[in-house]
Every structure is written in C-alpha cells, then in structure tokens.
Amino acid sequence: MSSNIPAVLGGKPTFDQMISIVRPVLPSFDHLKLEVSGILNGGMVTKGRHLRAFEDAVAQHLKIKHAIAVSSCTTGLMLTYQGLGLAGDVVVPSFTFMATVSALVWAGLRPVYADVDRGTTNLDPAAAEAAITPQTSAIVAVHNFGNPADIEALQAVANRHGLKLIFDAAHGFGALYRGRPVGAQGDAHVYSLSPTKLLITGEGGIVATNEDELAERVRIGREYGNDGHYDSVFAGFNARMPEFNALLGLHSLKMLEDAACRRNEVVDIYHEQLGRLPGIGFQVVKNGNRCSYKDFSITMEPEAFGLNRDELAQALAAENIDTRKYYQPPVHRQTAYAHYTNGQPLPETEWLSNHSLSLPIWSHMSDEVALGICATVSRIHEHCRAVQKALVTA
User: Fold this and answer.
1) What is the pLDDT of residue 77?
2) Whether 111 contacts 105, CB under 8 Å
3) Residues 293, 22: contact at Cβ < 8 Å?
4) Do the beta carbons of residue 138 and residue 186 sit within 8 Å?
5) Which of 190, 305, 383, 389 is deepest in the core (most CB within 10 A)?
6) Is the peptide bond before 327 cis (omega within 30 degrees of 0)?
7) Domains of the chain as residue ranges with CATH
8) Which residues pair with 69 in a beta bridge?
9) In this predicted structure, what is the pLDDT of residue 1?
10) pLDDT digits (tens, 9 = 90+) for 204-235
C-alpha cells in the first residue's frame, strides 16, 4: 500500500515502533558511577550530602530561600497544605491531574472547583474569585503543561480576600514567568520530579518557598513530624528523598535549560506544521512567559478537522503514535471527587476535557520524528471521511 494512505485504511504505519508520549532524558551511568559508589560504600543512602547539594542548587536556580526535597509532588502538596494551616474550602481547578485535589482531601480540606481559561488552560482568576466562600482559606493554581498561570492576577485575588496562594508546579521546572523561573511567587510552589518531567530524580518533589516558618514545618513534616527530639510536634509522615534520587536530580538540573529549549523548538515545528490544518488549536502562552511543555496538547474542532479527538487518537495509534487525553475525565467527574461538585458549571473545563489531545514530546525529540507526526496528522485529515467510516466499522 502507498505510504500516503493512513494505517487504519491499510497503509503502512508511519513509524515501525511506537512513538511514546514521553521519553525521559537521563544522565549516563559513567557520569554517576563514582558518586553512586560513594553512596554505597559510605552507607549514607538518605539525608546526606547529595540531598543538601541538590536542595541548594534548586534554591539557587529558582532564586528562592528554601527548596525542600520530598518523596513526591503529592506529599509535597500535602505537607504544604498542612504547613500553611489551611482549613475549610480551597479553590482549585478541575482541569488538572488528580493529585492536586487528592492532596487537599488527604489534608482534610474541601475542594471548590473553579473554571479555567480555554486558551491558557490555567485557572481563570475571575472564576477563582467567584468560587470563594466564607470558609475559603486558599487558592491552589496549576501551571498546566508547564504554562505559567496568571500569577499577578491570582495574587491580587488572594490579597483582596486574605487567602494563601499555592501553585501546583508539577510541570513547572523549565517554565519562565516574565523571564524568571516560576517558584518565588505566592506562598509556595510544589514541583514533581518524576520521569515524565524535565527535571528528573526518578520519583520525588520540591517544595519551594520564601516563608521560613512553612519551610521548617515541611522539613519537620517529612520526618514524621519529629523535630529531632524524638517527639512529634505534629502528625507528619515519611516523605524523605533518598540520596540516589538527589544525585540524579543534581545531574538532571544541569540538563534542564537544554531540555526546555529543545521542547520549545519541537513545539515550534508542531505549530508551523499543524497550524496549517483546520480545526487544530494550541495552548496560549502569554508574552514574556515560557512554557516548559511537559506536555504538548492540541485542541480539536471536529467540524473543521473532520474527525473528533477520540477518532484522531485511534488513527494515530494505528500509526504507532502514542497520545493522551489530558484531562479526561476532569477531577470533578472522577469517582473519588465528584461529590464535592456544588452544581457550579465548568464549561471551559468540560470543553477542554472533550477536545484536548496530547501528542508526543521529549527533551531530545528529533525534527524528523516531529515532522513525521505532523505529516501523519495531515494525512489523516486528508482522508478524514474514509478514516471515520473505517473506525465506525472496526
């Protein structure tokens, strides 16, 4: 069959092997082996010099007073919510990963969902303000896919109502807000360092803050609440980061800027090539900001493109191109969190959930792979009617 025919119509798949949605970039073992040997021979596998060095390096990179390494972004969020003494209601987007809200619930808080801006996919400051109740103690915003939130407007809302402002910055390493790394704004930023991110420790997270009291409570909280006297001053848990993870993070941090720049180059290819097709939209990144593009997500207008999001995802899977539907379902429709919904409509969240599709992006993706994906999407569009019929009868 001709390669101009989509695979779902009998053509040869664009790629012989699956193009995964993400591929982590890791340092070579040669760069790590001496220090790994030192960890094993010295017997200090946690709470050692690599952890301290990593925290210092991250704080310097973020231009922040405190960077506390923890076992995951989720535990970092839990400790941050606890450390700030939050109570009652917290305004939060539903168009986010489930951990943003699960950490709230674990901390005994009630999520109050607010809508996002369709263009940026981030929490809409006006919607956040409208969702504030007399019991609200904080706003939690997300730098979705690594796109900086509207920090200034959200801070103004928080200030008007005397609320704490926390950023779930799981996607935030590599993102710039007005030319500076996200991190020093609000009361705290909490980052993920898992293998899908630009800065990788294997598993882990960072709580970044300029607040001395919060930093101390997070440090104590990650040690079971034990302040060093074997007396829990409050109920904490084990959220420590092992030495090997911190060492991996130190080396990964050196690769961060290259990773962010390369992802933006890949996105430029996507924009140039896919922007020629009808019905495809892109996340809006405001002037002066840089998105880390932890994920690259497009939106689909089926009437213009000829296929809906789900149909395109099926057609791309036949071409060995992996995709994700972030976030489907959104948090307010997930089993564990649906009962917090108060009937407030979230039209932009619902629209994005039904029309968004994340395409593969990695920190070392070649132009050839990106162009191949774009050409495949274009070819599927050209044969959209036949593709749709084939999917219906499959």
Assistant:
1) 98
2) yes
3) no
4) no
5) 190
6) yes
7) 7-23+256-393 (3.90.1150.10), 29-254 (3.40.640.10)
8) 206
9) 35
10) 999 999 999 999 999 999 999 999 999 999 99
